[in-house]
Amino acid sequence: MIKIAPSILASDYLNLAAEIRRAEDSGADWLHVDIMDGVFVPNITFGPGLVQAIRSITKCFIDVHLMIVNPEKHIKAFSDAGADNITIHAEAVDSLSLTAETIRALGKTAGVSINPGTPVEKIAGYLDKFELVLLMSVNPGFGGQDFMVSTIDKVKELKKRILASGSKTLIEVDGGINEKNAAALREAGADVLVAGSAVFKSSNMAQTIIRLKT
Ligand code: DX5
Ligand code: ZN
Asked: What pTM was computed for the model?
């Protein structure tokens, strides 16, 4: 079954511990943590200290999404903080292979993300290096934006390439995902859906997560 990764970007920061418990109790498979540096994207969010704090209260799989320049410099810090998966942006690194190796050498799974404007070809030659490809369905930087429908075709294209390559790479999609567009993403071949606003602003989180999954 498809996995749901609530993005804590949309959570109530003053009650973060309770928000994480609420997400876990509501059936969240992963916790998605958006790291923004104000350079790669126009917004600034969290650092490794927050990941460490989250790690101390949960056994849930922590999915760290680095929307930062020079991510290579910070991979070790996020790994030490307790991230399970570390995703970098293809637009932000010089060598996808070296960066993937750095992440894997730390015993973590490696993810590569591409912005809406970046074609699947950019990462297609690296499917054996990454456990996960994260397709952005909004321009990264902010939660609560509208889902870009063109992402569905990108998921289909990537799924074809993954099947043809024989790799087990997971397809994750992030941005504007809700109960209306989740079914199309599941049918297109997505394996993990990130959802911030749809999950944390829901009055019935467990029901929302079930609807996103089925
Ligand atoms: C956007 C982030 C997303 C964001 C999703 O740059 O990468 O993870 O939190 O939030 P929603 O689901 O509200 O679009
Ligand atoms: Zn994200």
From this structure: 0.98
